[in-house]
Amino acid sequence: MTAETSQTLDRGLRVLKLLADTDHGLTVTELSTKLGVNRTVVYRLLATLEQHALVRRDLGGRARVGLGVLRLGRQVHPLVREAALPALRSLAEDIGATAHLTLVDGSEALAVAVVEPTWTDYHVAYRAGFRHPLDRGAAGKAILAARQSPSADPGYTLTHGELEAGASGAAAPLVGVTGVEGSVGVVMLADAVPERVGARVVEAAREVAEALR
Question: What are the residue boundaries of the IclR-ED domain, all occurrences included (predicted)?
Fold first, then answer.
C-alpha cells in the first residue's frame, strides 16, 4: 500500500476477487485467513459490499458474489469494444474480410465489435449483437479450444459453412486477459481460409489482449 491508495478499498476489492474465484463461496473465517485480517474487519467489508448488492450471503453464512456485479459487468462490453477496435480495423483492412471480437455470454458467443473492410467489392455482413452457440463457428470453437488447453498456445480455429452458407471463418482466443473470455476472428466468403490468415488472426488476438491488460 502507498499513501495514495485506500487500504479499505483494497481489501474490499480483494474480497470480490476471492469470491469470484470460488463456486461455493467463502465463510468469514476463510476470508479472514486469506486476507490476513481479523473477523471484525471482514464483517464490515461484507456488510458494505452487501449494501451495494456486490456480495450476498446464503443461509449457511457463506459469502458469494452478488447480482450487483452483473450490472457493473454490462458496462464492460463498450470498454472492451473500444480497446479492440484499432486491432480489428487493421485486421479487416489487411485481410479484406470482416473482423470481429466475440465474448462469452452464458452458453453463447456474442459478437461485441465488428469492423468491415473498406476496399473490397463484397464481404460478409456480420453485425455486433449476433449470437451463436459456442460449439458452432470459429469464434466459439476458438474459445472452447482455449478452455481445454489453458496452459498451451491454442493457435487458431478454422470453420466453413457452420454459421452462414458459403462463408469460412478463422478465429484465435484472447489469452492472458483476466475476467474476459473471448476471441478475435474474421469471416469471409470463400471455400477455404487462405494460409496467411490464421497467423494474422493470432497476431490480432494478441494485440487486443495487450490492449485489455
Answer: 68-213
